[in-house]
Amino acid sequence: MTTQDIQQMIEQRIAELNTTAEQKKQELKGLLAQDIEKSESFLTLLKNEQERLQNQLAQINDTMTMLEQPLVFHDILEEFEQSLTQDNVDLNELNQTIQHRLQESMNQQMNERKAQLLSTQQALVETLSTSQNTLSRTPKLWQQLNAQLQARFGDKIQKAKMKLAEQLESCAGKLKA
């Protein structure tokens, strides 16, 4: 074997390695493009969950504001004032009637507030559960993808590096001889 033959063999092997490297590069580019697409999808998912949680917080704040409002008894008090101006008023009966109406109105308003509070709490629990499921599922997906990539290409890359090193050593040995 002449030096020219060895040089030609080295050039041929380098061309083969370049072709293999280019193929691997294209495969990795494709996988990277998929990873980027999945990352963008994950980012969109995160933004959607953030928006959902912000909407839920706004609803909770509205409910809290509603709960802080005093109960409304204006119509009952106006009726009471009008009744006091009448001539034939039985004050005991009027007192009992007004107390009964105030109690009913208070109960009704409190029940409405409780119902709204329970509805808000239920919506919050559902939103948090959905967000938690969505977000906890996603890191597992990324871990699986990473493991698949390592399993799929990790050995091939290591083998290619080892093979390239062996061939370069072989070529260097032939050039010395």
Describe this entry's structure for a reader.
This protein is an all-alpha fold and 177 residues long. The chain has one domain. It is 92% helix and 0% strand. It has three helices and no strands. Helix 1 (3-68) runs antiparallel to helix 3 and helix 2 (74-84) runs antiparallel to helix 3 (91-176). The model has no long low-confidence stretch (mean pLDDT 82).
Mean of all residue-level pLDDT scores: 82
How many domains make up the 3D coordinates?
1
Give the end-to-end Cα distance, rounded to a whole number of Å: 10 Å
What percentage of the residues does DSSP assign to strands (E)?
under 5%
Spans of 5+ residues with little confidence (pLDDT < 50)?
A: none
* Main sheet: strands, sense, barrel: none
Q: What's the helical proportion of residues?
A: over 70%
Compute the number of strand runs.
Answer: 0
Number of helices: 3
User: How would you spell out the order of helices and strands?
Assistant: HHH
Q: Which descriptor suits the 3D outline?
A: rod-shaped
Please tell me how large the radius of gyration is.
39 Å
The class by helix and strand makeup works out as: mainly alpha
